[in-house]
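Format notes (please read before filing issues)

Several people have asked whether sequences and C-alpha cells are stored in separate files. They are not. Every record keeps both together, in the order shown below: the sequence lines, then the C-alpha cell lines. Line labels are part of the format and must not be stripped during preprocessing.
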Amino acid sequence: MLPHPHSDEFPAALRAAREASGMSRAELARKAGIHAVMPRRYEERDCGEFARPSESTYLALNRALGLMPEAQGGAMPSGEPAPLTLKEASIEQIVGELHRRGVQVSLTFPCRTENQVP
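Then the structure lines:
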C-alpha cells in the first residue's frame, strides 16, 4: 500500500507507483473514479493546488494501482491519525495546515468595546 496520505513520502510514492504501473495521471484518475486533475495535486507538493486525498480516495488510488492487499481489508494504514474534517478542526489546526501549504494567513478578531451589545 501507499504510505499514509498525510506522510511526507506519499506524493513521491504515488507518482512512483503510477509510473511503475505505466499509467498516465488521466488513466489513474479514471480507474480511481476521481477528477482528472487530482493525481497531479496529490503528487506535486510545489503545486499551488497541492492536496491530500480523503480516506476513500486513498483506498481507491491503492485499488487502481493494484496495491490493495486483501488482508488489509480496505483500511488506512496505522501510525498516523485519520485526517480531521473541517468541522472537527480547530482554528489553529486549519491555519497550521494552510501555512504548511504555503498560504499566508492572518486572522484578526474585532475587539468588543463597552458600548457594544453582545
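For reference, the curators noted about this record: The mean pLDDT is 82. The two ends are 52 Å apart (CA to CA).
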